[in-house]
């Protein structure tokens, strides 16, 4: 269990959004890891760092989001949309389900 949490933290620290607010990201991640943030409060515990993340969270509040759906909404590549979603998932804001083209993200 501990090694999984350490791996998740390492991924979060490696994310490009970490440089924007490292203390906030680590505090938010710690809240999720310690169980202080529940699925009901997770959306509000970690604010979006970018407009792209804000839109991803807004779409996830309405239902499962795919990288293709986010890419279309943002007008960016599917790979960039996947990076945004994966970054939110690595911080514990979104939950990822499935693999490959079937991967979906939810709150």
The CATH topology corresponds to: Arc Repressor Mutant, subunit A
Name the beta content range.
5-15%
Number of strands: 2
* Spatial order of the strands forming the largest sheet: 1-2
Q: Helical segment tally? A: 6
Largest sheet: 2 strands, antiparallel
Q: What general form does the structure show?
A: globular
CATH architecture: Orthogonal Bundle
Radius of gyration: 13 Å
Q: What structural category arises from helix and sheet content?
A: mainly alpha
Element order, helices and strands? HHHHHHEE
What count of domains describes the coordinates?
1
CATH superfamily: Winged helix-like DNA-binding domain superfamily/Winged helix DNA-binding domain
Q: Which stretches are poorly predicted, pLDDT < 50 over at least 5 residues?
A: none
Let me know the average pLDDT: 79
């Amino acid at each position: 269990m501990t090694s999984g949490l350490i791996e998740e933290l390492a991924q979060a620290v490696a994310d490009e959004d970490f440089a924007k607010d490292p203390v906030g990201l680590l505090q938010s991640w710690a809240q999720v890891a310690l169980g202080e943030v529940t699925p009901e409060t997770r959306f509000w515990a970690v604010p979006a760092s970018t407009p792209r993340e804000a839109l991803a969270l807004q779409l996830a509040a309405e239902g499962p989001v795919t990288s293709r759906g986010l890419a279309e909404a943002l007008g960016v590549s599917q790979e960039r949309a996947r990076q945004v979603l994966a970054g939110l998932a690595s911080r514990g804001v979104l939950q990822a389900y499935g693999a490959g083209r079937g991967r979906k993200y939810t709150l």
